Amino acid sequence: MPAFRYEAIDQSGKTARGVLEADSVRAGRAMLRAQGLAPLVVELAAAKLNGERNQRLALGRKLSQREQAILTRQLASLLIAGLPLNEALSVLSEQAERDYVRELMASIRGEVVGGHTFANALAQHPRDFPDIYRALVAAGEHTGKLGLVLSRLADYIEQSNALRQKIVLAFTYPAVVTVIALGIVTFLLSYVVPQVANVFMSTKQQLPLLTVAMLALSDYVRHWWWATLVAWAMAIWLVRQVLARPLPRLAFDRWLLTAPLAGRLVRGYNTVRFASTLGILTAAGVPILRALQAAGETLSNRAMLANVDDAIVRVREGLSLSRALGNTKTFPPVLVHLIRSGEATGDVTTMLDRASEGEASELERRTMLLTSLLEPLLILAMGGVVLVIVLAVMMPIIELNNMVQ
């Protein structure tokens, strides 16, 4: 039975909104009238809205990472408890706090009741459920372990969100210091330096080379700042256009893996995603080739993805997973060694989980170390720039005092 979104007015004149299930729009209006409501709008929960009303309701029409994790955890708990999928989705729809989440769950339930698989129902909402999410759900449905897959998927989403939040918070302070430093330098060059320069110009004094250079830079900042913004915008656009092509993007990702500081962070972040996803799929009993393909889709680095594709070919030819990944020379040796131990003991899933946890801790440690080094370096750089500006201003004053004496 499809789900319909409705707006109606009760007997007191108040507007009521919600979701109901009916055979048709006409049946939905009849149900509302039976409840003493005057229906204004009754439409499919998945229907696209138009005009001003679409713009008003479209705000916030996307699941947040937190809501996605909570819904996945709740659905996993209900399925493991033995509740049928359509009833579990109905429970989630009824207890949802936000209107959009309520409508989303009702729409998905309508698709499931209509005969679609859960993964196909999620595919109708790609903004809320990305490809890898739907791939894991499809694997769980195929193996009959949907509850287990959703439970591990909820763990993965929560851990991924926590790791991403720690990385963002770690780089927030250096970013704030950089913005403040640029603001101070821009103020000095555009306001303070010109004011002092006017005094020097009236004395007809020959200015030091540093002061002349600083005055030229100040003049550029005051009159050509817009050219700098345009140049940066064009450079960013050009880089994005180039990286949108497969070969330049592959070459850039290969270089990124070898970069002095960013290389280890990129490698570690992608390794965590790869090992976590592969662990979820192997726990659900997904064949190793299909699991490798789905886990590879989580990688944001094209060079690592190409290496995973090579590993898939080697595994298909009969090579073990550990040797196939080890031959790529891309993933950390710890991951390869743990997979080899799991193959020897027959418990690859546990070793993948350990590798993911260990690499996540190492990634967090490296991020904290990098930011702890960036903070004093930024402060020193800011102090150095301000010192140069002060010297450029003070040197003519000192020379003028010497001439007066």
UniProtKB/TrEMBL annotation:
<dbReference type="GO" id="GO:0005886">
    <property type="term" value="C:plasma membrane"/>
</dbReference>
<keyword id="KW-1133">Transmembrane helix</keyword>
<keyword id="KW-1003">Cell membrane</keyword>
<dbReference type="GO" id="GO:0015627">
    <property type="term" value="C:type II protein secretion system complex"/>
</dbReference>
<keyword id="KW-0472">Membrane</keyword>
<dbReference type="Pfam" id="PF00482">
    <property type="entry name" value="T2SSF"/>
</dbReference>
<keyword id="KW-0812">Transmembrane</keyword>
<dbReference type="InterPro" id="IPR042094">
    <property type="entry name" value="T2SS_GspF_sf"/>
</dbReference>
<dbReference type="InterPro" id="IPR018076">
    <property type="entry name" value="T2SS_GspF_dom"/>
</dbReference>
<protein>
    <submittedName>
        <fullName>Type II secretion system protein GspF</fullName>
    </submittedName>
</protein>
<feature type="domain" description="Type II secretion system protein GspF">
    <location>
        <begin position="274"/>
        <end position="396"/>
    </location>
</feature>
<dbReference type="InterPro" id="IPR011850">
    <property type="entry name" value="T2SS_GspF"/>
</dbReference>
<dbReference type="InterPro" id="IPR003004">
    <property type="entry name" value="GspF/PilC"/>
</dbReference>
<dbReference type="GO" id="GO:0015628">
    <property type="term" value="P:protein secretion by the type II secretion system"/>
</dbReference>
<comment type="similarity">
    <text>Belongs to the GSP F family.</text>
</comment>
<feature type="transmembrane region" description="Helical">
    <location>
        <begin position="373"/>
        <end position="398"/>
    </location>
</feature>
<keyword id="KW-0997">Cell inner membrane</keyword>
<feature type="transmembrane region" description="Helical">
    <location>
        <begin position="167"/>
        <end position="193"/>
    </location>
</feature>
<feature type="domain" description="Type II secretion system protein GspF">
    <location>
        <begin position="72"/>
        <end position="194"/>
    </location>
</feature>
<feature type="transmembrane region" description="Helical">
    <location>
        <begin position="224"/>
        <end position="243"/>
    </location>
</feature>
